[in-house]
Design goal:
Helix content is 38%, strand content 26%. With 686 residues, it is of the alpha+beta class. The two termini are 53 Å apart.
Length: 686
């Protein structure tokens, strides 16, 4: 269509170009009437999408609108208006759900003033999806809806962690009650979809939230009684112990310990109030034993978890400071293992109880390299155990194998030389380690005992397989066997128990398998060696229960590197890497490309919340916003004085996103001899 001799498309491009040019001006002021500008740009498209009988047209328009919203990034008023319109049109058709979610998540991130409004809007999207779903889809939509309701409640819980303040611990009852409202809402939906697992999770969150309210009430009651009678040693001692153990706040406990009449509290609370890193070696084990005794006499679960966590941190500090290999070191190592085992029983998820959302690691809070772990050969992959306390480094080559370290002490606790390996995993309790390649091997980490040593096939290795969350099965395929299926192999016996057809045109080459956290989906990527079509990269999302591919992701055929696709922890996205080409992020539900990074990297990793992406390249770590691609932090590492540094595709974040592990290798003599190799632990900062 033309208007005044100028086509609408040309006119639109001209207006966008003018808006973009104006936005780049230093003196730019956002347009006062974004609706008018929007109408000038997209009036005809809006009319077409609004009047079309096919609602898919509205969803397709929303995708184009989202792309155009990126072009006015310097006009926040217009950008906010456009993103809201994206959501409006995307939700007119089920295919637009992912687009709407992306738009609202962007609004939440970029427009702080309206964050709560947009958070409610996002929750509304998931509610709409759940209400419109039918059959099996309704259960899946309900689970997703519940998880997002819980996330809203958890966000409200985050700011209410106890902290040393003049007014005492900052526990906001009003905010906690608001969180409980969300949890109650989630409880209703979990009941409606008959999910006992989610119902139990919700019930635990409600109990923990009510526990915080009760904790505040008991704290305020004791403070009131202490103010009325500061010479009451019973009240002073009870208040000291509550601050010390239940609030895990020795600095606050220090205010009352001198009046407690307890000599142990008078001596040790002032020492416990100091940062662990400042405690002298001679006092570390004394404080550790004191906290262990407190854990034994404490009545509440939270108090026991906090006391044992403190005990463990002092033991770890002693081991780090005590350089002699003697009896004292051996005693400390034994106590560290015993305390860790006790904590695992009380707090199997490693969350630190209701007062902490993150795994507690006694590591320095700083940006840059913290520790270095040394290995014999070039690191090829890096894996972190579920309890975040063990780091497995897979070494490259025929003479390779694994080194497993204690994260906090840097001590190597287990080593195995099994030659080439294509995949590894820890069992959920972090006690058993398993690896597969030409053979399948399972080891007890504490003793190094070989539990299983099976060969699925003597002449074929499984190419980069994945273990199920329980560690009982491994998914993979054998390219040398001209495979066309995804095999399911029992770890204990090495027996192939199932084969899932992948619907490829030819046999599979250079494959890779990744499983979702719940073990329900697999991303299978590789090269489809079809005779007629030629060799083409592919990635299929496989429903493991239905035993069939349910989605194909569009893959770049650029370059010659291997495609490796990982499923992200949010259960919605996958990230694919082509060596020396770049990364692609997909929505696995509809196969759409969400982002592309034409930026080769030796290693990369997402934070567990999926919001940040770390690129390891050369001597730098770049942390970027995963949605916009904007670099938000650069961490420089020291360049070795001699040799050539290689940082392979091996890195991973801790669950709290505050630390990154990545492998390095320094060669000399033109990459023919390894000078030094290992892994860096890097602090990303707060």
């Amino acid at each position: 269509m033309t208007v005044g001799g100028i086509s609408q498309s040309v006119k639109k491009r001209a207006i966008l170009a003018i808006v973009s040019l104006i936005c780049s001006s230093a003196a730019f002021c956002p347009a006062a009437d974004p609706a008018k500008t929007f109408e000038e740009l997209f009036g005809a498209d809006v009319k077409k999408a609004s009047t079309s009988r096919n609602t898919r047209d509205a969803a397709d328009f929303a995708v184009k609108l989202l792309e155009n919203a990126q072009k006015v990034g310097d006009d926040p008023v217009l950008r906010e208006y456009m993103l809201n319109k994206v959501c409006e049109f995307a939700m007119k058709d089920p295919s637009g759900f992912a687009t709407a979610v992306h738009a609202v998540e962007t609004l939440m991130k970029e427009f702080e003033a309206g964050k709560n409004v947009y958070a409610d809007k996002l929750l509304g999207l998931y509610q709409t999806q759940y209400e419109k779903a039918r059959g099996a889809e309704k259960v899946a939509a309900g689970e997703e809806y519940v998880n997002h309701i819980l996330a809203r409640g958890d966000e409200l819980m985050e700011p209410v962690q106890p902290a040393s303040q003049p007014a005492g611990p900052q526990i906001n009852v009003e905010t906690i009650n608001a969180a409980i409202k969300f949890y109650r809402q989630a409880q209703v939906v979990a009941g409606a979809i008959k999910s006992s697992e989610l119902a139990a999770q919700v019930a635990q969150k409600i109990n923990e939230a009510n526990g915080l309210i009760d904790l505040k009430k008991r704290y305020e009651d004791l403070v009131s009684r202490y103010a009325a009678r500061p010479d009451d040693q019973v009240t002073a001692k009870a208040l000291t112990l509550l601050c010390l153990l239940e609030l895990d706040d020795p600095a606050l406990a220090l205010k009352y310990s001198s009046a407690s009449g307890d000599e142990g509290l008078k001596i040790y609370v002032p020492l416990a109030a100091k940062p662990v890193k400042d405690v002298q070696e001679s006092l570390c084990m004394e404080l550790a034993n004191w906290y262990k005794a407190l854990a034994g006499s404490a009545s509440g679960l939270q108090a026991k978890i906090n006391a044992l966590s403190r005990c463990k941190s002092y033991v770890a500090q002693f081991i780090a400071l005590h350089t002699k290999s003697d009896g004292e070191q051996l005693k400390a190592q034994k106590m560290l293992e015993e305390t860790g085992a006790d904590l695992a029983k009380l707090d199997p998820a490693g969350k630190g109880g209701m007062l902490s959302k993150a795994v507690r690691l006694s590591l320095p809070k700083k940006a840059g390299i913290i520790w270095e772990y040394e290995v014999a050969y070039r690191p090829f992959r890096i894996s972190l155990s579920p309890d975040c306390k063990k780091l497995a480094v897979c070494m490259y080559g025929d003479n390779g194998g694994y080194s497993v370290f204690d994260v906090e002490t840097k001590k190597e606790i287990f080593q195995c030389n099994i030659g080439w390996s294509y995949g590894e995993a820890f069992t959920p309790d972090s006690k058993i380690f398993m690896a597969t390649g030409p053979q399948m091997s399972v080891f007890e980490i504490k003793t190094g005992k070989v539990l299983v040593d099976k060969k699925p096939r003597a002449d074929n290795a499984y190419d980069t397989p994945a273990f199920t969350p329980d560690g009982k099965y491994v998914y993979g395929f054998q390219p040398q066997d001209r495979a066309k299926t995804l095999d399911v192999v029992e770890v204990q016996t090495g027996k192939k128990v199932k084969q899932i057809p992948l619907d490829c045109k030819g046999t599979i080459g250079r494959g890779f398998v990744s499983l979702s956290q719940d073990g329900k989906l697999a991303a299978v990527s590789g090269v489809d060696q079809g005779e007629a079509a030629g060799k083409q990269r592919f990635c299929k999302i496989v429903d493991l229960a239905a035993e069939k591919p349910v989605q194909s992701l569009p893959c770049s055929q650029e370059g010659e590197g291997k495609l490796q696709v990982y499923l992200l922890s949010d259960g919605k996205r996958a990230i694919g890497d082509i060596f020396r080409v770049g990364l692609t992020i997909w929505d696995i539900r509809n196969g759409k490309v969400l982002a592309e990074f034409k930026k080769p990297a030796e290693g990369y990793a997402f934070t567990p919340d999926g919001k940040r992406l770390a690129f390891v390249s050369g001597f730098n770590v770049e942390v970027m916003d995963a949605a916009s691609g904007k670099v938000i932090q650069t961490i420089k590492t020291e360049k070795p004085k001699e040799g050539n540094l290689v940082i392979p595709g091996a890195c991973c974040f801790t669950p709290d996103g505050q630390y990154l592990f990545y492998g390095f290798c320094v060669y000399q003599n033109d990459y023919k001899e390894v000078k030094t190799a290992g892994a860096y632990l890097v602090g990303i900062g707060q």
